[in-house]
Amino acid sequence: MNAAATIREYYESLRRGEPLYPYFAEHPDVVKFGVGERLVGYDAVAEGLREQTRTTDDWTVQSQDLRVIERDDHAHFSDAVFMSWTTPETEYALSTRWSGTLERRDDEWVFVGMHVSTPYVDG
């Protein structure tokens, strides 16, 4: 599987409510920035993603402009993604920007960094 296919598979796993932490490198320097969070280290990323899966449902993830540059053992990507989800209290819908870096490990691609943000600024 190439890096782009791994990213698409991650989106599909998010839609289906499947575990997401296996997509990340088991490394103390891995980092994931979400719309409202900063997780550093595999343990923090895995726990954050477990909590997200436990507390959210009904994910929509619509990739609008996935761009991937893949080299021998590293890849980086960017995408514009519309996403929505529900929690027991409310529904969310956001246009977001995604970027990150993947590393090839044993013929698999894993995220070593991911950044998800929204282009909107309060103020």
UniProtKB/TrEMBL annotation:
InterPro entries: NTF2-like_dom_sf, SnoaL-like. Residues 5-120 form the SnoaL-like domain. Coiled coil: none annotated. This is SnoaL-like domain-containing protein. It comes from Haloplanus vescus.
